[in-house]
Amino acid sequence: MDGNTDFSGVSDECTAEYILSNVAEVVERILTFVPTKSLLQIACVCRLWMNCARRVLRVQQKLTWVSASGPSNYDGHALCHSLAEEVENVYLLPKTVLVMVDSDTFSGQDSCYKQKKARKTHHSPDSVEELNRLFPNGCDIMTIATPGVVLTPSGSHSGPPEEFQEGEAGYAIMFPRMEGVDIRPFHFCKRTISESHLEEAGLVNNPDLRVVLLFGYEAYKPGAAHFLNQVLEPLARSKALIAGGHVENVFSPERECCGLGSYGVVGLALSGPRIQGASVLLEQDVSSPKAAEATIRRLKAANLPERNTLGFMFACVGRGHNYYNNQRNVEADTFRKVFPNIPLFGFFGNGEIGCDRIVKEDYTLCDTDTDSLQHGYTTVMTLVHLG
C-alpha cells in the first residue's frame, strides 16, 4: 500500500473497497479461507483477484478425501450424496481422484438396469456420471468397485479407520497438482498393452517412478493371468513400489478399447523425487492381532514422514473378521495403533499385489520377481508419502 495514501475523511466502506481492489497481500490472505469452488468464481471478479486466487491454488497442495457409509437415505450411493455436500467445502483443486465403492450397492444391479431400463437407483451406472459431474473438467477420475471397502472417516487424519466387508461404503481421495509429484492414471487391456503405451503411462523407462497402485479386473478370465504378467514383469525389475489387487469392476476411465467382460488393469503411476513408499505383506500365517501388529510395525523401519502420507490396505475377501475368529477391524485398528496420524484406505478384493519393499530417495530396499508380487489370503499394507 502507498505509504502516502490518506484515508482521513473517507468512510470505512470506501477504505475497504480500496483495499480489496488494490492490496494483493490482503486479498490473498482472505482468499486462503475460501473453499476452492467459491475461489474459482471469485477469480472472475477482476484481474487482481484472479492473480491472487491463482497463487492461493498453487500453495494448496495438501490432499483431502470424502468418505461415507450407508445405507443412504437418498437416491444414489451414500458416497455420491456426501461428495455433493462436502466437495463444496474442499480447499484444493482436484487434479486426480481415486474413488472406491462397494460393488454390491454401487453396481450389483448393473445388468438388470441395462436389460430392463429400470428407474434410476443407486445401483445404476448413472451413479458414475453423478460422481464425475462433481469434479472439475479435466480432472482424472478413477472409479473402482470392490467386494469390500476400508476407509477413514472424513475430516480427520487421526480418525479410526473402518473395514466394511459388507454394506454400503466408499471414499474419494482428491489429489491436487503438487510440485515435484506426477500422478498419471493408466488403463490397459489386451488391445492396448504395448511397450510404447507402458512408457507413455510412466511405467517403464522412467527413472523417477516411485509408486504404482495397480488394480486388475476380470482376473479370472482365460488369458488374464498372462496379460497381468506383461504389466508386472517390467515393474518387478524397476525400483518402484507396487501395491494393489484384483477388483470387481472399473467404471472410469471409460473402457472404450474393450468390451463388457474383458479383462485389464487400471492404476496410478506416481513419479517424482519427493515421493517415498513402503509396504509389507501380511501373509497367510498372520492370523492373530499380535502377529498382525508385529508385521505392520515393520513399516516403521522406513521412517517415512507422517505429514502428507496415506496408508493403503489391500486385503483378500477371505481375511477380515473371517480370519481373526470373528474379531472385526483387526488390521485397520492395528494400523491406527502403529500410525495414529495417517489415514488408511483400501479394499477387500479377489487377490493381492505387492511385497515387502521400501522406496526412499534414490534407493529401493528389496527387489523381487513377478511371481512373488501376486498373492491370495494376504494383506498388502502400504504407506505412500507425497512430499
Verbal overview:
- This protein is an alpha+beta fold and 387 residues long.
- The protein has helices at residues 12-22, 24-31, 36-42, 47-59, 78-86, 103-107, 110-116, 126-133, 195-200, 224-237, 289-296, 330-338, and strands spanning 64-69, 94-102, 140-146, 148-151, 162-164, 169-176, 182-189, 209-217, 241-247, 249-252, 264-271, 276-282, 309-316, 344-349, 352-353, 357-360, 363-365, 374-375, 379-385.
- It has an eight-stranded mixed beta sheet with strand order 5-4-14-13-19-12-16-17, with helices on one face. A six-stranded mixed beta sheet has the order 7-11-8-9-15-18, with helices on one face. The protein has a five-stranded mixed beta sheet with strand order 1-6-2-3-10.
- One of its GO terms (biological process) is protein polyubiquitination.
- InterPro entries: F-box-like_dom_sf, F-box_dom, FIST_C.
- This is F-box protein 22.
How many angstroms separate the termini? 35 Å
Shape: globular
Number of strand segments: 19
Radius of gyration: 23 Å
Q: Determine the structural class based on helices, strands and strand pairing.
A: alpha+beta
Share of residues in strands? 25-35%
Instruction: Order the strands across the largest sheet as they lie in space.
Output: 5-4-14-13-19-12-16-17
Main β-sheet description = 8 strands, mixed
Number of helices: 12
Question: In summary, what is this structure?
Answer:
It comes from Oncorhynchus mykiss (Rainbow trout). This protein is an alpha+beta fold.
